[in-house]
Fold each of these.
Amino acid sequence: MASFDEKTSDKSKLEDSIAELEEILLGLRQNLGSLHKKIELLESKPELQSGILNLKKAADVRARDLEAEVKRLREELSSMRELLGLNLDKRNSGK
C-alpha cells in the first residue's frame, strides 16, 4: 500500500514539475519574441545604432582614462609611502 502511495506522490510531483517547466518555457518564448522585436527595431533605425556606437566609444575612452588615473594614483601613493618611510618592503625586511 505504501508503495502505491509513493508512486502516486512521485507521479504528482512529476506532473507539477512538468507544469512548472511548461510555464518557464512559455515565458522564455515570450522573452525571445520580445527580443526579436527589439532587435528588428534597432536594426531598422540607423540613428539608434550610431547612438549606441557613440555611447560605447565614449564608455571605452572613459574606462581607459579611469584606468590611467588609477595607475597614476597608485604610483603617487607608492612615492608618498617611500617619502614617509612607509615602504612595506623596507619595513618587512627590517624585522
Amino acid sequence: MKRINFKLITIILFLQIAVIYCTDKNELSVTIKGNDYSGVYEGMIDISLCCEAYGIVNGWVAFDFSQNPPVILYDGVFYEGISIADNKLLNIEESEYSVYPVNTFGIFGENNGKYGLWYNYRSDDPEYDAGKTFLVKTGDISQAQSLIDKYRKEKDRFDVFFAKLKNYVIIKDYNGISSLVNYPIEDNSCSQYNNKSNKNLINEKEFASRIKTIMASSGTDFNTDFTYNRIEDDAPEFSGGIYVVYLGGQVHIKEINNEFKIIALLCYG
C-alpha cells in the first residue's frame, strides 16, 4: 500500500490558495486602477473647424467617472453620450465617430512609463493622418472636477445671456439684439460682401439695421432652429472659448469683463 505524502499535499494546497489570493489581488488592483481613470489628460487632440474639416491642436480633456453619467470636458466643451467599458472610452450614441472600431474614442494605458489615454483622432491636415495619439495624464480627479466646476459656471452664465438673446431673436427685437453687442464691431457677413455696405458698425442703430437684413435674407425659422455651440479653447482659427450662434451667418460671442457680448459677424454658417 502506498503511503500518502501529506507534506506534498500541504504544499499543493498552499500553492492553490496562493494562486486564488493573487488572482483576487490582481483583479482588485485592476478595479482600483479603473476608478483612477478620472483626471486631466493633455496632448494632441482633434478640433472641429469649418465645413466638416478637422485640425490638430495641443489641448486637454478632463474626465470625471465618479458621476453617472460620466462628465467629459473636452478642451472647454462638454461632451455627452460617453461611457467607459473596462479600459475603453466609448461613444454610446450614433455619430460620425462610428468610423472608429465599436465607436471607440480611445483606450487608457501606458506609454514609456507614463499613464494616459491612447486617443483616436481625426484630421484633414496632411501633416496629421487620422490615427492614435497619446494624451498624458497630468491631473487627478480633484483637478478634473475643479475644471468641470469652472466651465459649468461659465455655461450657466452663458445660458442666461442666450435666453435673453433667443427671446429678442424670436420676437424680432433688433434693438434688443443690438444692445448685446461689443462696439465697434466689424461686419464680415454675406450681406456686407454682397451689398458692399459699411464694414464697421459703431452703434446700436447701425447694427440693428444690419442684423435685420441678415436675418430676413437667411430664410431660417429661428423659432425652431436657434441653438448655440461652444468652440474649444485651443481652436486654431478662432478666439479660444467663444460661443457661436447662427443668425443668417455665424455670430461670435465672448465673455468680456464678466459680461457676454456679440463680437463678430461672419458670412459662413
Amino acid sequence: MDGSPKKMNSLVNMTAGRKKSNENLDWFLSRPSKILVGFPSRPKNLYDSMTPTRTIQSFIDAKKENLSPSEEVWNSLKGFRKWNEPELIGLRNASGYYPDIYFEAGMDETIAKLLAKFQERVVPHKF
C-alpha cells in the first residue's frame, strides 16, 4: 500500500469499525443469558411434555408389558380436549383394544363431539 493519507484514513476507519463491533460482541456475550436463566428442568405444564401420539403409544406399550402407565402419560391424557383430529381418532381406536384408556366417564361422547366439530369445519367443494 502506498502511504497516501486518504488510503491510511480508510484503513484506520475499517480497523476502528472492527474494533467497535468486537466490543459490542464482547459486551453482548458478557451479559447473562435471559434464555436459559430461570427455566425449570421440568416443564411447568405436564400437558405439554408429551405429544398426543407418544402418549397413546406409551399407554399401549405399558399395557402390553402389564405395567401401569406413568403419571406423565395420565397427565398428558387429561389434555385430550386440546388434541387434533388424527390424535382423537387414534385415542378412540386405542380404546377398542385398551378400554381403560378412557379414564373419565363420558369420554367417548366428548371425543365424538370434538370430532363432530372438526367435521363441521370441512368445506364441501366442487371441481
